[in-house]
Write a structure and sequence with these properties.
The protein is an alpha+beta fold and 393 residues long. It has 13 helices and 16 strands. A six-stranded mixed sheet has the order 2-3-6-7-10-11. A three-stranded mixed sheet has the order 1-5-4, with helices on both faces. Strands 12-15-16 form a three-stranded antiparallel sheet. It is elongated.
Length: 393
């Protein structure tokens, strides 16, 4: 048997650790990857009770699956810290344990804790006539239908599995073909890792730069941010900089916008749309109609910033509420949903309407507000007055 790689002692590590969580965060927010390794801990808030609940749901999903396996010789390393768990994982792999729960894989600055390491007899490794496969247990499903109606496997799930496969290849000298997860319904879902390899390599390169502090990126404010401990910090930064992501439906497109001179909300409010729109944009946010809406939202935002506007807080509250509802009751969101809201400011003739960021046909107006035919995670707050809508759908 070849000599096994030893973990790098924490005190001697010259590089900060990179984990599967960093790869997951990469698919959601580059700035979070940077802050988790380089941010001031004093600026990070404690996660909300709801986030803790989600963590517990995930752990319970894992426990339920492990319990369903019965007596299959599961080696449970979940209680152990990183270094002890790594040593015990190597010992269990040397013994040929059939299942290792929450084992630890280490190589250089990379540290991964896959939910399961499953022994497979269809291969050869440094341990003998068998090898191990990493499988994650998820509180969701891996395959989903995209906006183009094509089924695709979730990239953040794939990146985590590819990270574990990378570590396993370093440790045991080989990995089995194919990738697998166990979904919320205790079903095995398979995907082809080779379809993600190029993007994964680029992601890992970027993560290394962000974790080391060589790159920092910028906050990209969105509805998902409210569940992050760095939200208050990023929210202050966006307001202080008058960053374009202070407007709905800008997102990562802000980098392209800044490159052409639209660096602040004021720039967007004053822009001549004809000078910036792309006739056939790859990103719909750079189309003429989208830029016109964006300009209107920027003008409204600047008007509201000059006086106290409880509507702004109300918008964030509604966005977060919709996100939470979608996660708790996903079935509700797969069907048509109509909702309306009234401005808490109580100004005559003013209503606030929740609507998805995508262009949709709306249902008839109601006295208390306009009804929308569908609500999604991104929840746009359109302001309407008695003289007509400032932003049409």
């Amino acid at each position: 048997m070849s000599e096994l790689p030893a973990p790098v002692p924490p005190k001697k590590m010259s590089l900060k650790r990179i984990t599967a969580q960093d790869l997951y965060n990469y698919t959601k927010c580059l700035h979070r990857v940077y802050l988790d390794s380089n941010g001031d801990p004093a600026e990070k808030s404690e996660v909300s009770s709801f986030v803790k609940l989600l963590w517990e749901v995930g752990l319970q999903t894992e426990r339920d699956y492990i319990s369903s396996l019965g007596d299959q010789g599961v080696v449970d390393l979940q209680p152990l810290a990183v270094e002890p768990a790594f040593q015990e994982t190597l010992l269990a792999m040397e013994r040929g344990a059939p299942l290792i729960y929450q084992g630890c894989l280490m190589h250089g600055q990379f540290v991964g804790r896959p939910d399961l390491l499953v022994k497979r007899d269809s291969g050869v490794s440094r341990f003998g006539e068998f090898l191990y496969e990493p499988i994650d247990i998820k509180a969701g499903k891996g395959w989903e239908e995209s906006e183009s109606k094509k089924r695709k496997f979730k990239e953040h799930y794939a990146f985590q599995v590819l990270f574990y496969r990378l570590l396993l290849e370093k440790i045991q000298g080989a990995v089995p073909a194919g990738g697998r997860i166990i979904n919320v319904e205790k079903q095995i879902e398979e995907f082809d890792p080779t379809q993600f390899e190029d993007r994964f390599e680029q992601a890992l390169k970027t993560v290394r730069q962000l974790v080391s502090g060589a790159e920092s990126s910028e906050p990209v404010l969105g509805s998902h941010c409210t569940m992050c401990g760095w939200f208050a910090r990023c929210y202050r930064w966006v307001n202080d900089q008058s960053d374009p992501t202070g407007l709905f439906f800008v997102g990562k497109q802000k980098f392209a916008m800044k490159a052409v001179g639209l660096r602040t909300i004021a720039d967007i409010a004053e822009m001549e749309v004809e000078d910036f729109f792309v006739a056939s944009p790859q990103d719909p946010r750079m189309g003429k109609v989208s830029l016109e809406r964006m300009k209107t939202r920027a003008q409204v935002a600047l008007q509201e910033s000059q006086s106290f506007a409880p509507d702004m807080c109300f918008r964030w509250l509604i966005r977060k509420s919709i996100l939470i509802l979608k996660m708790i009751q996903p079935a509700v969101w797969s069907t048509s949903l109509a909702m309306s809201f009234v401005s808490p400011a109580g100004r005559p003739g003013t209503t606030i309407c929740g609507q998805s960021g995508r262009r949709m046909k709306s249902r008839p107006c109601a006295p208390s507000g306009r009804l929308c035919n569908r609500a999604e995670t991104w929840f746009f707050m359109c302001i309407h007055t008695k003289n007509g809508p400032h932003s049409s759908s």
